[in-house]
Amino acid sequence: MNMQFDVAQNGALPLMTRPCAPQSCDQCGVRDRAICTDLSDPDRDALSRIGRRVTLHAGQTVMWEGDDSMVVANVIDGTLKLATSTGDGREQIVGVVYASDFIGRPFGARTPHSVTALTDARLCLFPRGSFDAFARDHGDLQHRLLQRTLDDLDRTRAWMLLLGRKTAREKVATFLLDMARRLQADQAGTIELPLSRQQIADILGTTIETVSRQMSELKRQGIIALVGRRGVRLVDGAALEALAEGV
Amino acid sequence: MNMQFDVAQNGALPLMTRPCAPQSCDQCGVRDRAICTDLSDPDRDALSRIGRRVTLHAGQTVMWEGDDSMVVANVIDGTLKLATSTGDGREQIVGVVYASDFIGRPFGARTPHSVTALTDARLCLFPRGSFDAFARDHGDLQHRLLQRTLDDLDRTRAWMLLLGRKTAREKVATFLLDMARRLQADQAGTIELPLSRQQIADILGTTIETVSRQMSELKRQGIIALVGRRGVRLVDGAALEALAEGV
DNA sequence: CCGGCGGTTTGACAGAGGTCAATGCATGGT
DNA sequence: ACCATGCATTGACCTCTGTCAAACCGCCGG
């Protein structure tokens, strides 16, 4: 099906080589949305001292499927994909994460999926062992992590319905609505997808050609408008909603 | 695709009407595997007093998708399915749970999927509010719940690869290996599937006919043997493993 | 032991979507 | 401003799997 087209883009990981200058949590952009939000000031400082700010370029992979789980992180900025693949290189994106989301596998030995930057991104990175220890001692942090994990699980299960039972048309409609919900539209109502057609196909469990054909068809019907390579404007949201549910 | 064929089997829920006689945790069959395992004796007693033992018959549904999240439970015995469906009745099973697993949506207002007994089952049922409050006060319980949720999420994401990228053959092979891993084989090496062909199809995101055809083909090749309606013996496990990965 | 029910298997067919291939066209570098 | 490159679109074709339908057969009750 599709090859791991972006492996070649991955340079050496900057994790060890380019820690940014230590930066306080005070001016952190996700300060009031990340899992560390409701820690007390001294606790947050302690956690902050465990972690490092790290910058990623689009295409770089932070963790690989099956690796030992060495680090976890908060996403400060940017969009990343979580993916797994079959032995022969078919890839399925199992999650897309945004600013303030948490990535990595705490309390477990293995990273079950790769994590790759789709855009340039900044992370607040923690060694897993230290993070685990810290979390065990801080009930609210653990509670927030649990909340997030439960939400992730709900979203993931909802996506299984899409993968297993929806038609290509329904998949694309659902995807567009999902993106519109997460992304901020500009003044013209256009959203900029952080994903290529190939990546969209990898999320929807289909092919690039099918995604393209479905989008063209939606455009032909006047339900969406395509602007440039990655821009989309949802012209008739209600129609999309209907298609997403398969009516 | 497939209709919700088993809705008709659902009698009135026994949840309110048939609480079993209070029963201590001492003789609980999942005592050392459920999330309550490492609570202190008094704590476990306290939790036990919040909950009730409840018996379900095969086909009965405990919670419906979209309902307010009123209860959570430990599975003491039996097998249940978690499912979501599209507006027009296509169903996707998003999880199968066994003895000692935890079900329901703690810390959230809505139940994101239905929960239905596949076999007769026994639950240790808690009102969600009380359970949430208890869990917040007991870090180890919450930690165990987090562990389980993280494991569930890993498994669920692995299943997304199957739904999105695997062929019918690979799906069936993966399913059989997964069941063999979970279920206890009898002396002849035969496992008894707790699922009908329709339910298998609903797990794999395919149809009953495709499942049947793939199983027949595997049997023809001597890789598995079918015994009766629900029995399967994995004759050539290595061949199955190879098929599951798509080689 | 038999008969009927409900799940399962098998067959024939069709269509959605995958594959292969060519063309089109944004985007970024010079 | 232009071109080159790589992504996206479109087309033709084919296959896998879904659909419809009939035959089959475990399993249970009488």
TrEMBL record, chains A, B:
<keyword id="KW-0804">Transcription</keyword>
<dbReference type="InterPro" id="IPR018490">
    <property type="entry name" value="cNMP-bd_dom_sf"/>
</dbReference>
<dbReference type="InterPro" id="IPR000595">
    <property type="entry name" value="cNMP-bd_dom"/>
</dbReference>
<dbReference type="Pfam" id="PF13545">
    <property type="entry name" value="HTH_Crp_2"/>
</dbReference>
<dbReference type="InterPro" id="IPR036388">
    <property type="entry name" value="WH-like_DNA-bd_sf"/>
</dbReference>
<keyword id="KW-0805">Transcription regulation</keyword>
<feature type="domain" description="HTH crp-type">
    <location>
        <begin position="166"/>
        <end position="238"/>
    </location>
</feature>
<keyword id="KW-0238">DNA-binding</keyword>
<dbReference type="InterPro" id="IPR050397">
    <property type="entry name" value="Env_Response_Regulators"/>
</dbReference>
<feature type="domain" description="Cyclic nucleotide-binding">
    <location>
        <begin position="35"/>
        <end position="152"/>
    </location>
</feature>
<protein>
    <submittedName>
        <fullName>CRP/FNR family transcriptional regulator</fullName>
    </submittedName>
</protein>
<dbReference type="Pfam" id="PF00027">
    <property type="entry name" value="cNMP_binding"/>
</dbReference>
<dbReference type="InterPro" id="IPR014710">
    <property type="entry name" value="RmlC-like_jellyroll"/>
</dbReference>
<dbReference type="InterPro" id="IPR018335">
    <property type="entry name" value="Tscrpt_reg_HTH_Crp-type_CS"/>
</dbReference>
<dbReference type="InterPro" id="IPR036390">
    <property type="entry name" value="WH_DNA-bd_sf"/>
</dbReference>
<dbReference type="InterPro" id="IPR012318">
    <property type="entry name" value="HTH_CRP"/>
</dbReference>
